[in-house]
Amino acid sequence: xxxxxxxADLPLEPAEAPGTPPVxxxxxxxxxxxxxxxxxxxxxxxxxxxxxxxxxxxxNGDGFGVVRGLLSLVxxxxxxxVIGLVAGYLRWRFTRYFIDxxxxxxxxxxxxxxxxxxxxxxxxxxxxxxxxxxxLFGLAELHMEMAGGSESRTTLRFLRLDEARQLxxxxxxxxxxxxxxxxxxxxxxxxxVIAVVSPDRIIVGTLLSLDFxxxxxxxxxxxxxxxxxPDAWALLGGIIPAGFWLVQIIGTRVIAQWNFTLSRxxxxxxxxxGLLSRSSQTIPFERVQGIAVIEPFLWRKIGWQRLSVxxxxxxxxxxxxxxxxxxxxxxIADPLLARAVAEELIPHSDPAxxxxxxxxxxxxxxxxxxxxYRWVAATDRTFLAQEGxxxxxxxxxxxxxxxxxxxxxxxxQRRRGVATVEVHTPPGPVDAAGRHLDADTAxxxxxxxxxxxxxxxxxxxxxTAS
Length: 466
Prior knowledge:
The chain crosses the membrane at residues 37-58, 70-90, 207-229, 235-256. This protein is of the alpha+beta class.
């Protein structure tokens, strides 16, 4: 079957099968399939999963001889490939997507039909991922984020990359109320590049992170002890978990963030990254709920920071599905650049120009060293909270994005006359809390923040990129 070249409402397939849920009046009754190579990509993913599962069983101590191990590996790869091809074909054969005047819709299911509907007015962002195997065939998957909870993400696998990009432009245009006629090709939005994080900086930053140094140091120590100390070979078993930790760090911080590019458009920021698998993520300005400015211990010596962001609708499910954190706004940045990006998304949030409420000296029993680095403050637009002496974190929350405020005081805190103020945002890296403040001061801070959340309006939207 030939594929369409436009992302408009093109009737390519027969009408839906009986039993399909009814569609809204005036909506399409014919849809389009994803790319036929979806089955092949799915088979490759299942084969890789079988091989990884076998290696995991081997490292967990299951005994394998050389011949048995090779036969098991071949069986796992071939079996995974066959099962994946069958499952992928059925998924491709019984999946259609519809782009009509009121909503996007995905119909799927072999025995039980499912209709997932995305009204344009609830569509928040559309992201593109290129998993490594799909990228070899020029394919990509489309992630559609709706306003909602943990089930707000809908994924369409797999489309040609140019088709996925065009479909993203169509969906975003309709989500913003722009009429797109049938067959119309929408040009790519003009964007301004804010920052490009070079691979060498990402590698150096990873090498200077404490968790990388700890895992690498643990491997070196275990090897040295195993070779030097008699009867200490059992310690070499600890190399496997340390090695997995090291591989995970490299995968998430180097490979996944390779050629990290942050750009600005009319509707938000766009993040493009990845060495083996590429992703293109859009963060609308209005969905930013808070920013965490993170300064690891060794990074502070050379003036580097990391920015993470709370985005409405991005929960744990989105990160688990993609395998990459959707919350990284800048993996490494100089303070000047980090301050400029944070100020663009959350105006009037500079911690250097505010009067701070510090933790009470009576709280030293909870953090003998760290209590000196805890404080909260507020500007006319933003609530700020900082803590940490090994890894320092400054959380920024716009007043109008505050979901709730909590004042907590445990038994030991009551005895010490201190309390904790928490400013709640959606689940994510931001944890804005003033821990162990003087109890009376903490109550004042909580009431003042509630008042700001009710009365401080949202700032104007950043200007359109030229």
